[in-house]
Write a structure and sequence with these properties.
The protein has about 425 residues and is of the alpha/beta class. The protein is about 35% helix and about 20% strand. The longest helix is centred in the middle third of the chain and has 22 residues, at about 190-210.
Length: about 425
């Protein structure tokens, strides 16, 4: 169904939170001044969104899938393929793809899963691993590619591999890397046992290779934690997803900072916009992202823009950093409000999930959302935040509802029935 109304999803990654004692019992959204976000809420319809279902913590991958209208329960095959595709690795049929972290290990224990959020040199570390493992492991090719900061991706290519294995990343500090084993129900599977052995050997051998790398020697000399182990997790195989244009009848673009979401967009056949200055970190150029979003709307029907910084403050349990990141989101949204004609655009602001300061990880709490622009019926909410949006006219919605709501406002959703 053709429409002249452009649709926008603007996300502060992990923006939702819980009351923080250090902020006087307020959430970061309630503590930080957000004039642009408040304007959206006061002129729009608000509610709380649960990416998958109430109480279920969502990964950034499954949350974005749901928000874009794809059911993770039937289409999700693991995070690794999105990460790998996002960094430019090919994921062929039969390949296994992993998301990886460069981490710091001391005396056999993981002391920092993110190696101090290492900013540079991971390309050299990935190159060293690819050279060292050029001969493969047990006939299986190993391909590593760096991503943003501590992140990387890995592809295993060969015969007789299984995705039914556990993670080497223990997901917490103070303990050794996890021993990779077949997942429950696959304990006796020869392919799962072989794949586990291959990944365990990779983790054991990569430590010496990385420790000897000049990048890490220099980091140690500077008193920084070395990125001396690469930990694979989130194994998966390439998913089969209907193209976004076919699913929704819209030409879509993604303006995002992380390879995970970039990879999802590539699987969906969406245009992925690269923005100079969009670092994926706390120093990202939010106005450059907003300007790229406006430019993309010139020849796209739909865009999704994601600013990563709020999620980092949540994971690191740093209230000030998360508040500063929220201020970045607010400035970017302010640019959109000042630049676009809202008689011809409709936008949802929100997050893909909550990353509370007090937990340091994703939770299943509702994310505050607000819809603004063409077709929207304003309610009585006057500010953007967890508690104000909970009183909005939308009530509780799921991530799967978002594209239908936007399409309803824009007039692109087909009638159900006669």
């Amino acid at each position: 169904m053709a429409s002249s109304i452009k649709q926008i999803i603007f996300l502060g990654d992990g923006i939702g939170d819980r009351p923080v004692p250090a902020l006087g019992g307020k959430t970061p959204l309630e503590h930080q001044a957000t004039p642009a976000l408040d304007l959206v809420a006061s002129g729009g319809e608000s509610g709380l969104m649960y990416p998958i279902r109430p109480g279920l913590p969502a990964g950034s991958d499954t949350a974005h899938m749901a928000i874009l209208g794809y059911d993770p329960a039937t289409t999700y095959t693991g995070r690794g393929p999105f990460e790998a595709r996002g960094v430019g690795l090919e994921v062929r049929p039969g390949d296994l793809a992993f998301r990886c972290n460069f981490a710091t290990m001391t005396d056999g224990l993981i002391t920092d899963r993110r190696a101090g959020r290492i900013k540079s040199g991971t390309d050299e570390l990935a190159a060293a691993l690819n050279e060292a493992f050029a001969g493969g492991i047990d006939g299986v090719q190993v391909i590593v590619k760096e991503s943003v900061e501590h992140r990387a991706a890995m592809v295993l290519r060969g015969e007789g591999l299984s995705m039914h294995i556990t993670d080497a990343d223990p997901h917490e500090a103070g303990i050794p890397p996890g021993e990779v084993t077949p997942t429950p129900g696959h304990e006796g599977d020869p392919e799962a046992l072989r794949t586990s052995r291959i990944v365990n050997e990779f983790v054991e051998r990569n430590q010496a290779i990385l420790a000897a790398a000049p990048v890490n020697q220099e980091r140690v000399a500077q008193g920084l934690g070395p990125a001396n182990v690469l930990l694979p997790r989130g194994v998966g195989t390439g998913p089969h997803l209907a193209p976004f244009a076919e699913q929704w009848g819209l030409r879509g673009a993604l303006i995002v900072e992380v390879d995970l979401v970039r990879g999802l967009g590539l699987y969906l056949g969406m245009d992925v916009v690269t923005v100079e200055g969009a670092t994926g970190g706390s120093d990202t150029d939010e106005i450059a992202l907003a300007k790229a979003a406006v430019a993309a709307l010139a020849d796209h029907d739909f865009i999704l823009c994601n600013i990563k910084a709020p999620d980092l403050g949540g994971h690191d349990s740093l209230p000030d950093a998360k508040c500063a990141a929220i201020a970045k989101v607010d400035r970017a949204v302010g640019y959109l409000l000042d630049t676009l004609d809202w008689n011809h655009h409709v936008m949802m602001i929100g997050g893909d999930h909550c990353t509370p300061i007090t937990s340091g990880d994703h939770t299943g709490d509702g994310v505050p959302v607000a819809f603004y622009g063409h077709g929207v019926r304003p309610d009585y909410v006057t500010s953007y935040g967890e508690r104000p949006c909970a009183t909005g006219s939308l009530g509780r919605i799921l991530g799967a509802d978002v594209m239908y709501l936007l399409g309803n406002y824009a007039g692109t959703v087909h009638k159900f029935g006669a």
